[in-house]
Sequence to fold (538 residues):
Amino acid sequence: MTVVSRTATLACAAVLTFASEVPQAPQVAPAVEQPSVVFSTTARLVHVNVVVEDKQGRPIADLRKEDFEVLDNGVPQSIAFFTAEHAINPGRRAAAESVFTNQLPVATGWRSGYSAILLDWLNTPWGDKVYARSQALRMLTSVGVHDQVALYVLGNGLRVVQEFTADTVALAQKIAAEQGQVVNAPDPEVNPLTDASVGFLPFPDFGPSGYSATRREDHFLTERRVTDTLKAFEMIAAHLAAIPGRKSLIWVSAGFPQSIGFDIPPAGKRPEGFADARTFSPELNRALSRLNEADVSVYPVDARGLSPNPGVWKNISTMQELAGRTGGKAYYNRNDLAQAMRSALDDVRVSYTLAYYLPAAATRRDTLHHIRIRVHRPGVTVRHRSEYLERADGATVAPAEAKSEVRQAWSNPLDSTALGINAEAVRSGNTLVIQIALEANAISLTRKDGRLVGKLSIVAGFRKDDGTPLGIADSKSLALALREHTYQKVLQEGLKAMVRLPVPGNAASVRLLVRDTATNKVGTLTIPLQAIPKRGGD
Fold:
């Protein structure tokens, strides 16, 4: 299902035209040379990155394949691939001035070297926020960072402060600026109705007939904070999806509970049926699935530091679950937040990647697999993602899920990388011309009547300077039916399409979105208009 139909054209009329060699059902595609990953096979590899430490928390670097044992849903698996990974800096792609891509540079091997720091002010009270900022600054200014590190802030939305860089000075300057907002001016990221401080006020829990109105409001705000945070995790996972290997998400936060409304009041005042109670398990499981699919390990750092209050443990349990199920590590009940963040950055200095074949089964529904890895050496700690979701063969994506996926990708301040998009853009007067090349190795194609068939949707639109979408300029649904020799050519040259768009006066950037209908994979590319070269003396 296409998310936006032809009749949903909003801001301006746009025409998507395709390369002349492509028939009316566009048959052009991008460049990446791994045709085997496009088609369904009888077996596939499951990759798991493993960190092994001794009793002192030091990484163990001398393990061999024979030291590991892998169980998938309790069944032993034969290790088909094994490698030890050490620190490696990602290499950067050289690109022409007018060429843009949503693909991040990758390292050689399965250790990506990418770490994202998420300063979560949505769930963190004021006082803890100031201390956490100063500790993050101390961490960056005291020890050099050798990997690629990004800085994001979660407030009234997910905000990009600094995209991935190895420049520690630049990161420290951005965090110092964030700290300055607290000291010198009201923090624009805080809304009195959504800030976590509201949840720490001494509200009366129960009135004569159950929960008080104030308590109900607190539950509403908590629910909003939790769901917004989990959506932010999904956005970050989508941004890192195309990078092979383990990525780290360092989540500096006071956290959130896994449920609300199950408090036990004094005897005789129990609210009837816990009417306002709810659990966040569905949203949490969805976010965990996305993080594990993207191989992102979560490292929560409790911004509250050392606390004697037993009430902090309901949030710590959420941190422990996020860390445990993604292969990360939770840091809590400690005041040295700078050291905790530093430890999280250094956690994968040495790791191991194992892969095993999962025999194909005729499943009619998605199956959750639980992974357990043992190391035949006493006194070691083993950490890895604990699960993955096996998608059912031939399963179709529900229209509501497809629409939700695209809406989230469209509003995500980070580009989604599951589908690779390369583009060459030029501007002539008020007309923007973009030549798109989609990377074919991630597009799902099946054989039918001697051709490789699939279906894509392409959406184009503009955004304001603050990132607010201006609406959909246009959308197209592309039916692919490629002969084998055409597909081989497409792997080399890319699946190409040309977009012509009149530029609105208040536009600051243009965003392209591509969705694979079969798999619901989405890729987005955002291009600042000021970065696009002008043609014809304009």
In short: DSSP finds eight helices and 27 strands in the chain.
